Amino acid sequence: MYSNPGPSHGHDPVALITGTSSGFGLLTALTLARRGYRVFATMRDLERKNELVQQAEQAGIRERLHLLALDVTDEASVASAVQSAIKLAGRIDVLVNNAGFAVGGFVEEVSMETWRRQMETNFFGLIAVTKAVLPFMRAQRSGLIINVSSVSGLTGFPGYAPYAASKFAVEGFSESLRQEMLSYGVRVVLVEPGSFRTPIWGKGIAGIHSPEGSPYRARLEEVLRYSRRSAETAPDPQEVADLIARITAKRAPRLRYPVGKGSRVLMIGKALIPWKVLEGIISKSLRAMK
Length: 290
Known about the structure:
Layout: E1 14-17, H1 23-34, E2 38-43, H2 50-59, E3 65-69, H3 75-89, E4 94-97, H4 112-140, E5 143-148, H5 161-181, E6 186-193, H6 199-206, H7 217-232, H8 238-248, E7 256-259, H9 263-272, H10 275-287
Parallel strand pairs: 1-2, 1-4, 2-3, 4-5, 5-6, 6-7
């Protein structure tokens, strides 16, 4: 059974989730709907709704899902989607900021346009959706904002600086926002997945290219081999959706929830192990994939 995250009695709790066409977003939408939530499942392109709709119909929860177009990089789209949810449901109890993608490559070889595109979606888009929802949660004096970060928001890895930078930014933003909203009854939480079997890494790896004659090519190949191996052995992403559902049932959730293979170990290791030692462990792990 679900636990109402603070709204008034007499209605089903309402969740708005970004990036629900695949991966964590799709699974979270289905999981919360099963738990009695009225879910506003948003995605940039509604033509990609088929998998979500099909799974919802099979689970008998299609009527609990409301599909909305929402491009996190377009403020008008964000405002329209949030207003539609408020008009239909009257409130938003849970916001799951999940939309994002991964850019890889060595810093020198990633174009500034690509850097900006990474930050525009993963960071500024997350802020835009949060800002659109905050006035309603503040007025309700209740709400839960779950920002899907990453293990890459805890420790940077070679070859993924743009993605790591965007997730580090989400981490700092969430820490500040949590403190700002405490007195209004709005809780802010970070979910920090390690590697899971979702499309984000397949797309991210496929998009990494090194120019002919690049001095980084051999090192980049090590990173790509490690990423592919991690993706092949990664756990089921349903684990993340289930964690998000459990967090919505908590009265006083903590700030950070690392989840997945190695994520907790990495968090503890970064706090306790000197950086030079951690750096050496990461480098050795990459070389071991040859």
